[in-house]
Design goal:
This protein is mainly alpha-helical. 76% of the residues lie in helices and 0% in strands. The chain has nine helices and no strands. Helix 1 packs across helix 6 and helix 4 runs parallel beside helix 7. The chain is elongated, with a radius of gyration of 18 Å.
Length: 193
């Protein structure tokens, strides 16, 4: 995971960790990065501040753990969607954009908060996840320069939207964004042949 994090060894400790991470997500979503403190997370989780410090060295390590968990969910949801998609460009691109949109919609506020306050190590984890997601898409869609460009464009648009939609709203829900992005990507892929 990350330096400054002590992984759980027992089932009860893993359950406690999940409780802390869920509380951390809640605090980020409802209070934002500025009010994200170990104390606020401990209060939300119903634990002592010391219980959280036994697991994490501080706020930065806890934020990294939340980001790592969300990125893992994103990688998993995209991988599953691509594995389950029907063959053909329309199905693969649609599954890809919907999986991204669904994950970002479920954690809309949290992704923007994590993008606002990320440090270099968190940025590196994010880039690793984006690269893995792009590889999965390229494998499913038939690797080519146009497919890789499509993946980077969709991923870039998704991350940009998550980072800026609070300040620069586009008046779309994530489902509509996914549908319109799919059509744009398919038009590009058709023109790149």
């Amino acid at each position: 995971m990350h330096e400054g994090f002590r992984p759980p060894q027992q089932a009860r400790s893993r359950a406690s960790l999940e409780k802390v991470l869920a509380a951390a997500e809640h605090v980020l979503a409802h209070r934002g990065h500025e009010e994200f403190t170990i104390g606020a997370v401990a209060e939300q989780a119903g634990l002592s501040v010391g219980a959280i410090y036994r697991r994490f060295d501080g706020k930065d390590q806890l934020l990294f753990a939340v980001k790592d968990q969300l990125l893992s969910r994103l990688e998993t949801s995209v991988g599953e969607a691509l594995r389950d998609s029907a063959p053909g460009a329309r199905a693969v691109v649609g599954a890809f954009t919907r999986a991204l949109a669904d994950t970002f919609a479920d954690h809309d506020r949290i992704f923007s908060e994590l993008l606002d306050g990320q440090r270099a190590d968190g940025r590196e984890r994010g880039l690793q996840a984006l690269a893995a997601i792009q590889r999965a898409f390229a494998e499913a869609a038939g690797d080519s320069r146009a497919v890789r460009m499509t993946a980077r464009t969709i991923l870039g648009a998704c991350v940009h939207r998550a980072a800026t939609c609070r300040y620069w709203p586009d008046d779309l829900d994530w489902t509509t964004w996914a549908a319109e992005t799919t059509e744009m990507a398919l038009a590009y892929l058709a023109s790149a042949k």
